[in-house]
Amino acid sequence: MKSYSIAVIGGDGTGPEVIREAVKVLDAAAHKFNFKLNYTDYDFGGERFLRTQEVLPDSAAEELRKYPAILLGAIGHPQVKPGILEKGILLRLRFELEQYINLRPVKLYDERFCPLKDKKPADIDFVVVRENNEGLYTGAGGFVFKGTPHEVAVQESINTRRGVERCVRFAFDYARRRRAGQPWHGLKPEDVAAGKKAQLTLCGKTNVLTYAFDLWERTFHAVGQKDYPDIKRDYAHVDATTMWFVKNPEWFDVIVTDNMFGDIITDLGAMIQGGMGIAAGGNLNPQGTSMFEPIGGSAPKYTGLNVINPLAAICAGQMMLDFLGENAAATAIETAVIDIVRTKLNSLAAGKMGYSTTQVGDLVAATV
Length: 368
Ligand code: IPM
Ligand code: MN
What we know:
By secondary structure, the chain is α/β, with parallel strands linked by helices. The chain has helices at residues 15-33, 46-52, 60-64, 84-96, 161-178, 189-193, 212-227, 238-247, 259-272, 311-324, 327-343, 357-367, and strands at 2-11, 35-42, 69-74, 101-107, 125-131, 141-144, 152-155, 198-204, 231-237, 254-257, 280-284, 290-294.
């Protein structure tokens, strides 16, 4: 029987509760599809930091490198100053494990949970490929004359040809794989006639960030023209992208963007797909260790109440199985989630689902 070693970081707040439900569902899928998941727990997070004053042991990345995948609950503790855990655990692992892609699907499962008027599941079904190792997140910059009236603060966006190109290539490949069957329904007849199968939108700011997004734009078109003639290339400024997420989300198939813009637009994406209760993402190193997480935070005020929605964590687990190659099991989880969302839940928000955290996990596990 095939088996996979999975590192589990429940983390802070409601993280451990939602991860428990994800593991329940993953085990149900593994049982049905005849493979095994062996979990190893790691206690990284705010509680450990408060106890030991160590954010992340230096050996952590080396140790985690042994696993093909990590399942992460949430990072962020009300008694720890913002930034310490986020930078010291989440961002450090994303960087040290070279998880250079942050894959964030935006998919509406039930129109009842969409805040946009008249939008249906067919209208909201796109994927954001966020660059995850560069841009404004590298920590490059500094202060001069800190604390004086002459203070200067610099925060630089780092964009390398290698980093941009591997991200853009991943996005093109992903768009191609996603539409391996039917061409995307949003393509115009002339695009389909010209052999296009999918669309990749570069989301940038070429009119202002004339160095960074110039590199992105040149790389995007050079790579696309040479190696991906079957993918339609599209461009949108980041501000216009947010406008269209609200007005015409059906215009998007796959989007590729830098780290900061990707961070911002995927919170909006999460809202139009039904909220943080359902939004999941994967920090991918296609050659190494990837890390899957619900994209919402640790929700301290709901901790321990058994009211938080575990579906985002369950969907993170689903993405993990897909990435590990257990595609049928991943599809079974997604189908079960859709079924429970459509037929059982009153809401995707904490405390309003009509079921507890553990009951939602039980329902999905039983449906897989
Ligand atoms: C996210 C989060 C993180 C980010 C924070 C917690 C550092 O907002 O995963 O989107 O900015 O990437
Ligand atoms: Mn974010």
